Write a sequence for this structure.
């Protein structure tokens, strides 16, 4: 079986091998044939060590495909079913799940420490307990979420992470109000989804901020009312808000320096929504006076900040109604053998979202 493997954390290239086997199938498990997978920046962050992940590992967590087989005790799924991969399934019984905060369930993270692949040389992990840069994968049954027949695999893959994360940040976490002003810092796939979420919520002004010109141009097509380079944000804040600051600012980069910029761009009493996944040693700082005096809400958003199954359904409904554009988010399509080219395109900002077709 073919798969793209990172041998050691810190390497910037994957090796596509054909001697990988999906393992771990049994009770409560599902074996999937991956048909399409998106390349998310979190995959690259795991490769570099920004996000913790045991190695060697197979990146990829934004996937969709077909059920090959189900283990004992699995209900609601059958061979041949079309599914998307949920990398953070809810166990339904932990305190977070019982409170209705299923996006904070830790059961899925526990899977990341159990190898679900092997090679002649030893065990191989799947990123975030999944690993979709491969032809087949074994996951917990909760990771396989059925999708309607009219949803193409590549669209379902995007909904499995980036779209749900960005839309949910605007709708669930920040709860953007109609007529409000919004700035989105970082306009890759998740940032574009946040822009679409703000538009769905009825924001009056949505300013996209990104250093890459092609991404700024794309942001305008997806609902931003204007797009600026980072050095143009202060001017946009002055023009649009008379210097007061935006009602909502979304940080979708995952760095303390951009989070600080986002904080300073938020009006007093406004909302800073932190969506980007950053490093454990990158500390965001505010002083105690400004924290008290400005009363700005700082809201992290994990996987869209809400029940992911409901969020999937909502994304499909909005896509069907033509209220969000998911097809155009896929700017590049590659085969697995071209995965390193796709990673380079993501690093330079050339690609908005790349679909790897398997």
């Amino acid at each position: 079986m073919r798969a793209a493997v990172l041998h050691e954390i810190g390497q910037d290239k994957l090796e596509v091998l054909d001697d990988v086997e999906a393992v771990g199938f049994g009770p409560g498990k599902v074996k999937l044939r991956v048909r399409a997978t998106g390349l998310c920046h979190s995959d690259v962050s795991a490769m570099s060590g920004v996000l913790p992940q045991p190695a060697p590992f197979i990146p990829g967590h934004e996937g969709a495909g077909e059920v090959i087989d189900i283990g004992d005790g699995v209900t609601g799924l059958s061979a041949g079913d079309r599914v998307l991969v949920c990398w953070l399934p809810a166990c339904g019984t932990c305190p977070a799940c019982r409170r209705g905060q299923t996006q904070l369930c830790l059961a899925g993270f526990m899977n990341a420490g159990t190898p679900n692949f092997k090679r002649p040389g030893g065990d191989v992990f799947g990123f975030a307990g999944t690993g979709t840069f491969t032809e087949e994968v074994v996951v917990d049954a909760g990771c396989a979420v059925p999708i309607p027949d009219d949803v193409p695999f590549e669209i379902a893959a995007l909904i499995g992470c980036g779209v749900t994360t960005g839309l949910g940040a605007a709708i669930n976490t920040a709860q953007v109000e109609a007529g409000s002003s919004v700035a989105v810092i970082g306009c890759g796939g998740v940032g574009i989804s946040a822009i679409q979420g703000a538009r769905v919520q009825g924001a009056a002004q949505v300013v996209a901020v990104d250093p890459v010109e092609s991404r700024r141009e794309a942001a305008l097509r997806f609902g931003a009312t204007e797009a600026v380079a980072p050095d143009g944000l202060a001017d946009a804040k002055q023009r649009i808000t008379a210097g007061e600051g935006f009602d909502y600012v979304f940080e979708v980069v995952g760095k303390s320096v951009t989070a600080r910029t986002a904080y300073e761009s938020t009006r007093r009493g406004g909302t800073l929504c932190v969506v980007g996944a950053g490093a454990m040693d990158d500390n965001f700082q505010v002083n105690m006076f400004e924290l008290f005096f400005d009363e700005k809400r700082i809201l992290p958003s994990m996987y869209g900040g809400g029940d992911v199954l409901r969020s999937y359904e909502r994304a499909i409904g909005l896509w069907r109604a033509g209220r969000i554009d998911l097809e155009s988010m896929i700017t590049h399509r590659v085969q697995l053998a071209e995965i390193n080219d796709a990673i380079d395109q993501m690093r330079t900002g050339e690609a908005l979202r790349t679909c790897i077709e398997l």
